[in-house]
Design brief:
Elements: E1 44-46, E2 49-51
Antiparallel strand pairs: 1-2
Length: 52
């Protein structure tokens, strides 16, 4: 019986695609909590390439 530590799985492969310029530049500051909500689309494929 061997007591070897198993390596933890990580799917992170570093930066793979090109990170595009933020053209939206919206202000997410609000005067009161709960006034604004937003979502982050981290990654999707476009023309066979990963886009962020």
């Amino acid at each position: 019986m061997h007591n070897r530590k198993q390596a933890k799985y990580s799917s992170y492969q570093g930066t793979i695609g090109v990170i595009k310029e933020n053209k939206v530049k919206q202000s997410f500051h609000s005067e009161h909590p709960g006034q604004k909500y937003y979502a982050d689309t981290t990654e999707f494929k476009l023309n066979g390439q990963k886009t962020y």
